[in-house]
Design brief:
The chain has 142 residues and is of the alpha+beta class. The chain is 24% helix and 41% strand. The protein has one domain (2-137): 2-Layer Sandwich (Alpha-D-Glucose-1,6-Bisphosphate, Chain A, domain 4). β6 and β7 (90-97) form a beta hairpin.
């Protein structure tokens, strides 16, 4: 199993970024790699420790890709942690206010299964971070 860390700096408040990552009407705009969509009706957010976080992405070929997770920690606007129940992968997002209108978002994943750590999977994940950045840059309107 692998451990991965990604960092991005966004011109937005920690509160807005946290809300974008926890609100279906925001998530639908960027969740998943380029070439996929995640319709709002395919997103479940029960924002509390023990609550469900589920998404089903739809590929351009019609394939469906479901992620089932449970929130472990919810500390708005600083930290969000969930555990993927199918792979036992733990994802931690931290939101650090840089006090200049920008926020650093760090995504840290542990127990990443081999198929999700492959170069192809990582390339797709990076495009999802790009989509999030574009959504924020465009004003993040649900």
């Amino acid at each position: 199993m692998t451990e991965l860390t990604f960092r991005r700096i966004h011109r937005a408040t920690p509160e807005l970024l946290f809300d974008c990552m926890t609100t279906p009407t925001h998530l639908t705009h960027f969740w998943g790699p380029t070439g996929t969509t995640t319709p709002v009706e395919n997103i479940t957010v029960d924002l509390r420790p023990g609550g469900a976080f589920e998404t089903t992405m739809v590929g351009s070929d019609g394939g469906r890709y479901t992620m089932r997770a449970v929130y472990v920690e919810v500390d708005r606007p600083d930290r969000l942690v969930w555990r993927d129940v199918d792979h036992d992968m733990l994802t931690t997002l931290t939101f650090v206010d840089l006090h200049d209108g920008r926020t650093e978002v760090t995504t840290h994943q542990v127990r990443v299964p081999a198929q999700m750590a492959s170069p192809q999977a990582q390339s797709g994940f990076l495009t999802s971070l790009d989509r999030f950045d574009a959504y924020i840059s465009d004003g993040a309107r649900p």
